[in-house]
Amino acid sequence: MTTAAARTVALRYARSSDVAFDGARSDVRLALDGARATSAGTAPPALSGLVKDPALLRDALATLLAVKDSDLRYQGKDRSAYFAYLLAKGKRAGAGVWEAQKAFIDRELAGETAAATGLDPLLTVDADEASFEVFSRDESAYARLSLGAPLFDDRRATHGTAFFQVPATFAEGIGRLRSYLPVHFDAAAGAAGEGASERTAAVTEGWLKSFLQVQSAATLPATICEIAPVDLYNILYVLTVRRAKKAPRALRFELLPGQRPRIVLEPFGVVLEAHGAPYTGRTPAVIRTYGRQRLLALHRLLSHVRRARIALLGPGLPMFWILDLGVGAPARAGASSTTGAPANDAASHTPSAAPPPPLATLTLGLTGWTDSSWSSAAAFDRLVPAAGASALAEKAVRALETSGPKPLSALATTLATTPENARAALQRACLRGEVVLDVATGSFRRRALFAAPVDDEVTRAASPREARALRLLEAKGAVAITKEHTIAGTGLEVRGEAKDTEARRTYAPRFTLDLEGRVTDAWCNCPTFARSGLREGPCEHMLALRTVHAREKAAAEAMRDTPEGRAKIRAETRTLVRRDARGAEETFRVSLDGKRVRLAWTVAAKVTGSAPAPRHQALDFDQESDARDEYFGRLAALAQRGFIDAGDLPEGEVSSSSSATA
User: Fold this and answer.
1) Does 323 fall in a domain?
2) Which pLDDT value is given to residue 88?
3) Quick one: which of 58, 430, 32, 446 has its CA closest to 220?
4) 349 and 424 part of one domain
5) Is 179 in contact with 303 (CB distance < 8 Å)?
6) Most exposed of 7, 151, 597, 625 (fewest Cβ within 10 Å)?
C-alpha cells in the first residue's frame, strides 16, 4: 500500500562521516545535520572526547548500524539468468515465471524507495549521555544506544538533537577500530568542506507512524524479567545452529514469582534456565514473542553485556531488550543508580549496594512480528491515547525542557495529575516526536524529532485507506464479526461484515490468523480487492475487521474474571503448563464448547525420550451454565496445583521439552 509523503526534511552536511587512522590513534568523525540549527538560529549539537573503551564503542556502533540496515522481509529470487537460458534454448517462459519476476522487481523497487524515504539516524546530546537512534529498513526494529558521559575523557558537549550521516563505507571503518589504539570521537556540524552534501528526505506517513508508535509502546506497562549474559549467548547459539521449519517460531517466557525465568525456544522445545535475578512480578505469566531472528544482530555485544532485561508488553505488541554494556566507576554508597528498572516495572529488585553504572546501554525495540505490516496494525490500535491527552502533553514537554529527564511518578507530581493521565500525555508527546522514553532508566527525555511536532492525524492514520477504516470503526455497529472458525494446525478464520454508508453497500471481509497471530490469507467482495487483491495492501474493510477482532478479544480477556464476562463465554480453550526441576513439562488443555467440557493432558515425562501420548476426557452437562462452572472450576484447581496459563499454545505441541543450561 503506497502512502503519501508526510513531510520533506532538508538535510545539510558540511562534511562526510568517516573513520581515520594515522598509526598512533583513530578518529571517528560524525557529520551532523546543520540545516535545523541554521533555520532556528541556534548552535548545532556537538560531542567530542577521548574514548575510554574503544572496543565497546566499536561493537556498539557496529550493532547499531547492523540494526539500521537489517531487512528480514521475504526476498524474492531473481530469475533473469533463467530467462536468458530459456531464450537461448528458444523456449518461452510460463505466466507463473513472469509473475514471479515481476513480483521480485516490485519488491526490489519497494526496498529502494524505503531506503530513500527513511530518515537518517538521530543523535541527541545531553549533560549525562549521548544517545543514537536508528530504525531498521523493514520498519520492525528500533535501537537506542546511550553512551554515558564517563565513557569519554575530556568530554566537550553542546546539547541538542540532529541527524547524522552514515555513508556506505562508515560501517567498514568502525569495524577496523582496534582496542590497543586511542580513539577520539568527534560529532559536529562544522564548516563546509570536502565531502559536503545536501539532500531532501521525503518521509512517508507509514514510516513515520511506525517509528513513533514503537517508541510510544515503551510508555505502556510491561512485564519485566532479567537474564544473565550467558542466557543471551544460549539464545543466540540455538538460533544460529537451528532453523525452524514450522510455526510457532517463538520465544516463550515462563515467569513464576520468586523464580528465575525460563525461556523456551519453539518449535524446538529447547528450555533455557535463566541465570538472572528472580522474577519479581506478583502473578505467574507465560508470554510468547515472535521475530526472534532479529536478536542475532546483538552477537557482537556479548563480551560487553553485564546485564540484560526484557520488557514484554503482550501479544502483537513490541518488546524491548535492554543491555547494560561495560562497567563504569563504582557508585557512591546511598546514591541512586542510573540503571534502575523502567518506571512501569511495579516491583523492581533493589540491591543492598548500588552497582556501578554501565558505560553504555543499548535498548532494542522489536515489533510484534518481523513483518511490520497490517497484521500488527490492530495491536498498535491500543497505542493511540485519548484525545484529551493533547493539552496535558504540551505541559509535560515544557516540564521536561525546564527540569530535564524525569520518571513517570515525578512528572505526574509536577503536572498535578494521576499517573494514568500523565502516561497518556507522555504517550501523545512520544507520538508527536517531542519526547522519548529512556527504557533503561525509566526516565522521559525531551527530544525533538523535527523542529515542529508531528501532526496527530499522521500517527492516527498513515494512509487514506486507514482513514476510511477508522471512519467505519467510528460508526457504531458498522463493523461486526459474524463467525470465528478454528482450523486445526492452521489458525483462526474470522468472518465479518462492514456496512459502508458512503458506498451504500455491505461488504463481507474475512481473514485467517496463523499460529503466530499473523494474517496469512484475506478476502473481501469490495471493488478494491476485486481490482488488485492484496497487491496494494488490505482494503479498509479488512483493516476495520482486524481491529474489531483485536478490540473484542482484549475486552473479553478483561471481562473474563467477572460474572458478567464469564456468562458471555460459550466456547473457549485454555492451555496450562507446569514444569518440574528436570525441565519436563506437563500440559493440561481445558476446552468449553457449549454444554461440553473437554480435557486433554499429558503427564510429566523425562527430559530425553519421546513425548507421552495425551489423555482425553469429555464431560457433558444439561445446562451451559453448569458446563461453564465446571470449566472455570477446573482452571482454578489447576492454578492452585502450580499450572500457569500458556495462552495460545498450539494444539499438539510436544509436551516433553529438552532442557539446556549453560
Assistant:
1) yes
2) 65
3) 430
4) no
5) no
6) 625
CA distances from 415 to 219, 391, 400, 418 (A): 17, 11, 11, 9
pLDDT tens for each residue of 593-622:
889 999 998 876 544 445 667 889 999 999
Give the number of other CB atoms < 10 A from CB of residue 537.
19
| Strand-strand pairing, 658-660 and 270-273 | parallel
Residue 536: DSSP 8-state: T
Helix intervals (H) in 197-278: 205-217, 229-241
Contact partners, residue 356, CB within 8 Å, separation at least 6:
327, 328, 329, 330, 331
**Whole-number percent of the chain with pLDDT over 70:** 80
Q: What pLDDT was estimated at residue 187?
A: 94
Confidence of residue 218 (pLDDT cuts 50, 70, 90): confident
Contacts of 264 by beta carbon, 8 Å cutoff, 6+ apart: 251, 252, 254, 270, 271, 272, 657
* pLDDT for the residue numbered 161: 94
Domain edge (last residue) among 329, 354, 383? 383
CB atoms within 10 A of CB 472: 22
Assess whether pLDDT exceeds 80 at residue 22. yes
For residues 358 and 503, membership in a common domain is answered with: no
- The number of folded domains in the chain is 5
- Residue 310: pLDDT above 80? yes
Q: Which domain holds residue 334?
A: 218-383
What CATH number does residue 450 fall under?
1.10.10.10
The pTM of the full predicted model, rounded to 2 decimals, is: 0.78
Helix, strand, coil: what percent of the chain each, to 5? Answer: 30, 30, 40
What DSSP line would sit under 462-511, residue for residue? Answer: SSHHHHHHHHHHHSTTSEEEEEEEEETTTEEEEEEEEEETTTTEEE--EE
DSSP assignment of 49-93: EEES-HHHHHHHHHHHHHHHH---S--PPP-HHHHHHHHHTT---
Mean pLDDT of the chain: 82
| Tens of pLDDT, residues 167-194 | 989 999 999 999 999 999 999 987 777 7
Write down the pLDDT at residue 49. 96
Element at 319 (helix H, strand E): strand 319-325
Return the minimum-mean-pLDDT range out of 16-25, 153-162, 246-255, 347-356: 347-356
Cα–Cα distance for residue pair 142/294, rounded to 1 Å = 11
Q: What is the pLDDT of residues 562-597, one digit of tens each?
A: 888 888 888 888 888 887 767 677 888 999 988 999
Q: Are residues 363 and 479 in the same domain?
A: no
Q: Dihedral through CA 479, CA 480, CA 486, CA 489, nearest 10?
A: 10
Rounded Cα–Cα distance for residues 589 and 277 (Å): 30
Mean pLDDT of 530-551: 85
Closest CA to 113 of 132, 139, 144, 133: 139
Quote the CA–CA distance of 399 and 405 in Å, as a whole number: 9
Judge contact between 577 and 646, C-beta under 8 A. yes
Compute CA distances 540 → 458, 473, 508, 526, 551, whole Å: 17, 10, 12, 10, 16
pLDDT above 90 as % of the chain: 40
269 shares its domain with 359: yes
For residue 350, is it within any domain?
yes
Closest to 638 (Cα-Cα) out of 606, 582, 597, 594: 597
Looking at residue 391, the DSSP 8-state letter turns out to be: H
**In one letter, which amino acid is 585?**
E
CATH number, domain with residue 222 = 3.10.150.10
Rounded CA gap, 605 and 641, in Å?
18
pLDDT at 113: 47
